[in-house]
Amino acid sequence: MNLSRGVSATKCKIITIANQKGGVGKTTTAMNLGVALARRGLRVLLVDSDPQANLTSYLGVTPGQPPYESLATLDEIYLSKRPLDAEARSRFICPTPAGVDLIAADKNLSSVEYYLFTRPDRESVLARFFMSISSKYDFILVDTPPSLNLLTLNALCGSNHVLIPVQPEFFSLEGIVKIRAAIEDIRARWNPTLSILGVVATQVSNRRKLTGEVLEMLRAELGDLFFSSLIHDSSAVTESSGHAKSVLEYDRSSRGAKDYQTLCDELLERCGITQAGITSTLMPGEVPVEATS
């Protein structure tokens, strides 16, 4: 199976990256994990579902300004009163130099939630849009705001999986409990196929005295749900956003780049996708993908 031509044996994996706590690395994970997947030869779409539009900025896209004057943003999907045809849908898809496609956001997304409350299908708008485009992609990753609002609810109702980034702090487990309860409610009411792909620790610093204790606590409480891959504090990751590049583009030899490549490998394994036969587009010097049986 050549995954560079699409994961034909499995449907598109739609993954919402969510945590109601801010500052845990949702946007950074969406960006760098998406680029890592694309460098495995996979077709990747990133969706910016946060009104702060940080993912859109991270990719160097400014809707309404050259060369993105005609780019439609996510809020217009929610505001559309009729199904979008193929030509209309294409207005939302923005190819980027990073090798991933993007559905961008801007400040207009912040007012969408008020409109959604008037729609009887308020929870499933994004799910229907994903159904119309998912055949074009192997992975769709959705970045969400730091709250369990209607934007996050739409993302979860349209996804197969949830990836939960957390900081290694003692209060992180409390946040995980809350989002797991929300996911169970969504499974019961709207999306019975939704599952938690896993919890990944971000911004891990060996200099912090309690980090090891918290990581052990998370492993003990979460078991197999806890990714063995860790995303460490990395100046290259922080700097890359200011240059509108993923850390894999900005400094491919950095610890941050290697961490996200390792996370990418583990995510593919959890999704049941063999890496044998992937046409890799890793740059010279980057960590190669090992074939799995």
Write structural notes for this entry:
- This protein is an alpha/beta fold.
- It has one domain (9-270): Rossmann fold (3-Layer(aba) Sandwich), CATH 3.40.50.300.
- Helices cover 37% and strands 15% of the residues.
- The protein contains twelve helices and eight strands.
- It has helices spanning 26-38, 54-58, 74-79, 86-90, 112-116, 125-133, 150-157, 172-189, 211-222, 235-242, 247-250, 255-270; strands at residues 13-17, 44-48, 94-95, 101-103, 139-143, 161-166, 195-204, 226-232.
- The protein has an eight-stranded mixed sheet, sandwiched between helices.
- Strand 3 (94-95) and strand 4 (101-103) form a beta hairpin.
- Helix 1 (26-38) crosses helix 12.
- The chain is globular.
- The model is unreliable at 1-9 and 279-293 (pLDDT under 50).
